[in-house]
Amino acid sequence: MDGENILASAERYDLAGVLDQRTVRVCALGSLWAEPSPDLAHATMLIDMLIASAARDGAEMALLFPSADIGGDLRSPFHAMPMMNLTLSVAESSRHGAPMTMVRTGEERDLAAIAAMGRVRADRVPFHLDRDSDFIQYVITTKRLLAGLGSANARQMHFFIAEEGITAAAYVIVTVVGNTWTLEECGDRDTSGARVGALLQALIAREPVERRPTINAWLPPGFLPPQVGIASAVRSTEKVSVRMLDSGGMMPQLCGDDILFWRNDLL
């Protein structure tokens, strides 16, 4: 602040992460905004203050989420994680019908099963957030509010479950803006991801005469449902940056296969 004038603002989240099988406390910074300045001095100052406070509280790692309100590079020593933006294709029946999959809208009672299947997949990946039911409910609620409180029909959010009995066996969370779908996250008890592929096929088949959507996603390493192909893969322009807060800690060299990070994790 400068008197009553806001110079910079951000949101700080206290999260749990896993790095090389070790639980770490993570300070995540999102929604960064600052008054325009050539050197981003106000933004850098605020980040340094928040990180110093988090380190005193026991945080070991900091994540900086991308912000459309900040241009240029910050002076703080963050390292961008190598995220790949994928454009997906989904195989369809020549009759444009939906697969024989039990599909329903996701509910709060599904969150524990979603968290459990996520932890099983994440267990093999060196770095990921520890996403419990509360975290998943928060990010779903955020996307629902963004869709519900925006301009009419400008954005939609779909949360669908494939179930066995009454238990969620797979799920997808998709946001829709125009003809572009973003697969925010997904999960499947089947390691092949076949039920996730079937869910996407069912969503597309609901409107068989419509032009097929462009589907963008960040996917975990080694995860690609058999009904899904990769039409293109480019380095994401949305940079998630990371730094260690221990003065003696070295930031490990993380490649794409070392990271599991959903688009829904962008707080």
Keywords:
2 domains; seven-stranded mixed β-sheet; alpha+beta; 21% helix; Aminopeptidase; 267 residues
Structure description:
This protein has 267 residues and is of the alpha+beta class. It folds into 2 domains: 8-82 and 237-265, Gcn5-related N-acetyltransferase (GNAT) (Aminopeptidase, 3-Layer(aba) Sandwich), CATH 3.40.630.30; 84-235, Gcn5-related N-acetyltransferase (GNAT) (Aminopeptidase). The chain has 4 helices and 14 strands. It has helices at 41-56, 111-122, 133-148, 194-205, and strands at 8-19, 22-34, 61-64, 79-80, 84-90, 103-105, 127-129, 156-164, 167-177, 180-188, 214-217, 228-235, 241-244, 259-260. A 7-stranded mixed sheet has the order 4-13-3-2-1-7-14, with helices on one face. Helix 2 (111-122) crosses helix 3 (133-148). The longest helix has 16 residues, at 41-56. The chain is globular, with a radius of gyration of 20 Å. The two termini are 23 Å apart.
Strands of the widest sheet, in order across it, are 4-13-3-2-1-7-14
CATH class of the largest domain: Alpha Beta
Let me know the CATH homologous superfamily of the largest domain.
Answer: Gcn5-related N-acetyltransferase (GNAT)
Structural class estimated from helices and strands:
alpha+beta
Radius of gyration, CA atoms, in whole angstroms: 20 Å
CATH-derived topology of the largest domain = Aminopeptidase
Whole-number tally of structural domains: 2
The average pLDDT is 90
Uncertain residue ranges: none
Proportion of strand residues: 25-35%
Number of discrete helical segments = 4
Distance between the termini: 23 Å
Helix-strand pattern, N to C?
EEHEEEEHEHEEEHEEEE
- Helix % is 10-25%
**Number of extended strands:** 14
Largest sheet: 7 strands, mixed
Shape type = globular
In CATH, the architecture of the largest domain is 3-Layer(aba) Sandwich
